[in-house]
């Protein structure tokens, strides 16, 4: 079967297509999307066909807008410069929910080695890699294709491995040999950067610099390492469906391939790779405890939907660091920050236990919709 366009795809699907069985057969190989590419596929399996809405490129790559780039060099020494940087972060967080960070203090050599480490993991012997393939989220390292493989309307053209690097990182021997050392080094540096960013975000909200760190926003760190193989039919699938991230704050390291887009004023805007830069975005919630950033800021900051396009060129590698409260059991209830509320700015979200948000988001998966409306008053 040869599919030449999105419009033709539904008509060519055979009635006997059993999605559930094909998902399981694919998952059971434990080889991921890369396994398909290694096998030489020229036509992607039907489980990867994305809904037409996900593939809407009518406003893709809009050049009218550009993602803010913020330089934080010297921020610890110059009070005046710090104030200007806080203003820039406030504007970017309220308007875009995304910005690129340069001169952030993490050496370029570390960034490059982190990307190489991810490539080594995915390109090592398949039998070694299979040992990490699991859907048991309690394992020290979890490698699979799509966390919502069995619930999402379409499978994304992407493999992922992740591990929780704080507050209780895995033992060194439990990390992949291909990238364990650099993963530990990078995690320590990005954790320091995340703490600084949360200070700046607190100041941008007019709060004490320690406010967000004091409510545990930087206690936990989950590092997700994505691998997007070259795709033979990128017009039929997508690397990552439209979504808002399930964390408070995300720091993303991306390679030179590109493909990341953010939805801004109903237009898909490219987030172009900038050498040495890190992409920062405001998330819907906190990983593990899953605190809704828009909930606690009462919509002051924006959590923007974004996606990653599939590409004939690849592989694309990215490393997403999710800052959170840590994966400890907690009955803590979160709601809009009271200091941000007033008669003219009443709460827009109900208070909720973090476990309730975690359960709802996990069951919903990346279906192209936000979890936030479910918690609105």
From TrEMBL:
Which InterPro entries is this protein grouped with?
DIOX_N, IPNS-like_FE2OG_OXY, IPNS-like_sf, Oxoglu/Fe-dep_dioxygenase_dom
- Swiss-Prot/TrEMBL keywords: Iron, Metal-binding, Oxidoreductase
Domain Fe2OG dioxygenase residues, every copy:
219-326
Per its UniProt record, the required cofactor names are:
Fe cation
Example of a GO MF term? metal ion binding
* Coiled-coil spans in chain: none
SUPFAM superfamilies listed in its UniProt record: Clavaminate synthase-like
Check the record and name the Gene3D superfamilies matching this protein.
B-lactam Antibiotic, Isopenicillin N Synthase, Chain
Family classification: Belongs to the iron/ascorbate-dependent oxidoreductase family.
Q: Which PANTHER family match?
A: 1-AMINOCYCLOPROPANE-1-CARBOXYLATE OXIDASE HOMOLOG 1, OXIDOREDUCTASE, 2OG-FE II OXYGENASE FAMILY PROTEIN
Q: What name does this protein carry?
A: Fe2OG dioxygenase domain-containing protein
Species this protein is from: Carpinus fangiana
Please name the taxonomic classification of the source: Eukaryota, Viridiplantae, Streptophyta, Embryophyta, Tracheophyta
